[in-house]
Write a structure and sequence with these properties.
two-stranded parallel ribbon; alpha+beta; 37% helix
């Protein structure tokens, strides 16, 4: 089953510090609670792939504002995105991704 959440939290615990920011994509027909319920059902059925919801630049801006408000400036970004993109514009929030960490 897709154990992405477990892997993320294990990596954060191993590091001894970290932050998880969930963005509820209201413009999507699928809200966060429905998505988590779907993941739970898929895990019961031993399904390994969870449908992906693409984030847009507005979502990244909201996340950047949250991280800035938490006084996070430099970060190692945990990502399952196989096409890692340089996040232009986050420097405007005082953020710097020093490393992308695949999980």
């Amino acid at each position: 089953p897709d154990d992405s959440f477990s892997r993320v939290f294990k990596l954060i615990n191993k590091e001894g510090k970290g932050c998880v920011v969930f963005i509820n994509q209201e413009n999507q027909s699928f809200n966060l609670i429905n998505r988590l319920n779907l993941i739970k059902e898929l895990q019961k059925e031993n399904e390994t792939k969870v449908p992906e919801i693409k984030m847009d630049e507005k979502d990244f801006g909201i996340g950047a504002q949250i991280l800035h408000n938490l006084q996070i400036s430099k970060m190692r970004l945990l990502t399952n995105d196989t096409q890692i993109k340089k996040r232009v514009g986050i420097i405007g929030y005082g953020l710097e991704i020093v490393e992308n960490v695949a999980f």
